[in-house]
Amino acid sequence: MGNKTYQSAVVVIPPREVWPPIQQIRQNHDRHFRRWMPHITLLYPFRPAAAFESAGRHISAVCSEIRSFEIKLNKFGYFRHRKKNLTIFLEPEPPDPLIDLQGRLLGAFPDCNDVNLKGQGFVPHLSVGQSGERLDSNGLLASLGENWEPIFFPVNGIYLIRRNDPPDDVFRVEKFFPFGQNKR
Asked: pLDDT value at position 99?
């Protein structure tokens, strides 16, 4: 994996003002709560920090052709990893702008396709936790959805994030890449 590292990613990050209900769930159910901010992964692993300047030019070129769009987080879904291990997530609606964006980024970074290699390929999602429970009408997924209020937010660009080695291994924003000027 010489050209990629698990210390960087390209992601969509919701605005901080919509974080509280997401973080409340993540704090209780997400073992990655400390390391990651709420996000939708587009490319991970990504380039090492030494390659950020070059990678940034490619990301900027992709973003210049993208228009802003709105995301709605309204329902929960899950990925089954093993017989009983699950990742629970919020499904961004509509998924198509994120799928298009990720496809364009993949065109610029074809070797950063790790999120496309699992299960059904790239599925836009915002992880909120993991569970070993079996899902049923009384399970975690149902309980999370009971009192959930939909969240809407604009996506006006994407973020390059990175982390250091432990113990300072919390992801931080390295750079924001705004979408093109032809917004809405």
From this structure: 98
